[in-house]
C-alpha cells in the first residue's frame, strides 16, 4: 500500500449502515396462547393402537428469531421429537407460535430452551428433545439441543 493509499484508508469515512441496528421485540411477543392440542388417541376409535408410546418428529426450516444485538434474522432448522403422554401439538398452531419469534431478539441457546419450556408446559410429554441447527454466521455454526424427560412416577 502506498503512503497515499494508507492515508486515504485512515481518513475514509465509515461506511453508512455499519452502525445500523434494527429494533427487536421482547420475550412477551412469543405467542404461547396460540398453541393448541388434540388427544393422542381418538376416543371414538374402538381399535387399540399397538406399539405405544409413539414418537413424533416435527421439522421446519423456517424458524427465524433475530439477533438481540443487530436485529438481523437468524435462520435455523428446528427439530422437535417427543413422546406424547395424552395430547399432541396441533401443527397449524405450532406454525403460528414459531412465527411469533420472527422479531424477538433472543440468543440461539435461549430460543431453543424457550421452545422446550413452552412445549413441555403445553403437552406434559413423556420425553421431548428440541434441536435447532442455526445457519452459518461469521464463520461460526451453532447447533443447540435440549432434552426433557418426565420424572418417573412411582406407584404404590
Largest sheet geometry = 4 strands, antiparallel
**Overall spatial form:** elongated
Q: What is the architecture at the second tier of CATH?
A: 2-Layer Sandwich
Give start-end ranges of low-pLDDT stretches: none
CATH class: Alpha Beta
CATH superfamily label: GTP cyclohydrolase I, C-terminal domain/NADPH-dependent 7-cyano-7-deazaguanine reductase, N-terminal domain
Helix content: 10-25%
From the alpha-carbon coordinates, what is the Rg to the nearest angstrom? 22 Å
Number of strands: 6
CATH topology: GTP Cyclohydrolase I, domain 2
Number of domains: 1
Q: Give the mean pLDDT.
A: 87
As a percent range, the share of strand residues is 15-25%
Order of helices and strands: HEEEEHHEE
Termini separation: 82 Å
Structural class: alpha+beta
Total of helices: 3
Give, in spatial order, the strands making up the sheet with the most strands.
2-3-5-6
Walk me through what this model shows.
The chain is α+β, with helices and mostly antiparallel strands. It has a single domain, classed as GTP Cyclohydrolase I, domain 2, CATH 3.30.1130.10. It contains three helices and six strands, in the order αββββααββ. It has a four-stranded antiparallel sheet, covered by helices on one side. Strands 1-4 form a two-stranded antiparallel sheet. A hairpin with an 8-residue loop joins β5 and β6.
